[in-house]
Amino acid sequence: MDLTGWLEFFTAGLATQMQETVDRGERVIKTDLLIQQHQFNDRQSIILRHLVDHASSAIRGLEELCPDVSRRTLQRDLRIMEEKGLVVRTGDTNQLVYRVSKEL
C-alpha cells in the first residue's frame, strides 16, 4: 500500500497551517509593539487589535465592541491612529470603513 500521495497532501496542509500560524504570530507581535510604541490606552488597543484581526470595520462594529464608549470618542481614537499612519479610511460618510494600513 503506497501512502506517498496521502503523505504529500498531509505535509502540504501542515506546512500551510504552520505558515498561517507564523503569520498570525508576527501580526500579533507587531501590533503589540505598535501599541507600546504609541502608548495607546486600553480602548485604542482594543480597536487596533480588532482592525488587525478583521482587516476592516465600520464604526458600528467598533461601537458594538466598546458599547460604553461614545461614537465621537471612537472617531477621535481612529483619527489619532490615522494620523500615525496605522489606519486608513475608505468610503463615504454612510459607508465609511476603517482599515489597517498596508504597512501593518
Q: Topology, please?
A:
Layout: H1 4-37, H2 42-54, E1 56-57, H3 59-65, H4 71-83, E2 87-90, E3 97-100
Antiparallel strand pairs: 1-3, 2-3
Helix pairs in contact: 1-2, 2-4
Description of the structure:
The protein has 104 residues and is mainly α. It has one domain: Arc Repressor Mutant, subunit A. The protein is 64% helix and 10% strand. It is built from 4 helices and 3 strands, in the order ααβααββ. β2 (87-90) and β3 form a beta hairpin. α1 (4-37) packs antiparallel against α2 and α2 crosses α4 (71-83). The longest helix has 34 residues, at 4-37. The model has no long low-confidence stretch (mean pLDDT 91).
Count of helical regions = 4
Structural class by SSE content: mainly alpha
Q: In which order are the strands of the major sheet placed? A: 1-3-2
Number of domains: 1
Percentage of helical residues?
A: 55-70%
- The value of Rg in angstroms is 18 Å
Q: How much of the polypeptide forms β-strand, as a percent range?
A: 5-15%
Q: Stretches where pLDDT falls below 50 for ≥5 residues?
A: none
Q: What is the general shape? A: elongated
Classified in CATH, the superfamily is Winged helix-like DNA-binding domain superfamily/Winged helix DNA-binding domain
Q: Averaging pLDDT over every residue, what do you get?
A: 91
What's the helix-strand series?
Answer: HHEHHEE
Keywords:
mainly alpha, single chain
Brief sketch in words of this structure:
It contains four helices and three strands, in the order H-H-E-H-H-E-E. It has helices spanning about 5-35, 40-55, 60-65, 70-85, and strands spanning about 55, 85-90, 95-100.
